[in-house]
Amino acid sequence: RTVIAGQGMGIYFKVIIAATIAALVYQFTPTSTRAGIPVDAVHVLESFLEVMGGIYSVLAAFVIYVVWEQFNSLQKLTVHEGSLAAEVPRLASRLGGESTEIRKRIASAIRTYLEAATAEWEDLAQLKESHAAIKALDAVETRVGEAGSLGESSQAIYGRLVDAVAALRECRMSRVSAAKHRMPTTLSHLLGLLSLFLLAAFLAMPPGEQPAIGLAAFVCLAGVFSMIRGVVWDMDHPFVGVRNISKAPFEESGKG
What we know:
By secondary structure, the protein is mainly alpha-helical.
C-alpha cells in the first residue's frame, strides 16, 4: 500500500527528476560527437523521429483514452451501486404489518455494508476483495429474506426488495471486476521504450548554433514523456495517487 501510494503521489516529483537527468545528460554529452554526424545520418534521424513520434503519439492517445474511460466507468458503477443501496431501506420503509423491527434491521444491514464497501478501497488498490463487505452484503440478503414472512399486503414490496438486493449484488460484482482491471504492463513498457528511443535520437542530433534551445527542447521532451506515463499510471490505479474514485456515493447513501 505505501509503495503504490508513493508512486502515485510522486508523479510531479518524477517529472522534475526526469527533466533534471535529461538536462545533465544533454550537458555532459560531448558536443563534438553530435556535431560530427554526417548529413545523411541527420536525415535518417529526422525520419526516425518523425515516424517514431507519430507511433508514440497514437499509442499514447489510445492508452490515455482507454484508462480514462475505465476510470469514468468505475466511477459510474460506484454511483449506481450507492443509489441501489439507498433504494433498499426506502423500499423496506413501505413494508406493512408488524415490520418495524425488520425495517430497522434492513436499514442497519445496508449501513454496515456501505461502511464495509467504503473501507474496501485499500483492498481494491491491492486487487483484493474485502471479505467484510461480502459478508455484509450477505447479511443484507438475510435481513430482506425475513420480510418474506410478513402478510400478503407486504408481498409486492418484498418482491421489489429481493430484486433490489439482486441488482445491488450484480452491480457490486461489476464494480469490483472493473476495479481489479489494470492495463497490461507490456503496454506501459512499450510507451517507456518508445520515449527512450525518441530521446536518444533527439540527443544524437547536431546541437546547431544555439545549444540552449536544444537543451530546453530535450528537457521538455523528457518531462512530457514522464508526465504522460505518470498520468496513465495514476488513472490506471483509481484508488491511490492523485485522482481517485470518490467514496461520496457510498458515504451519502449510508447517511440516508
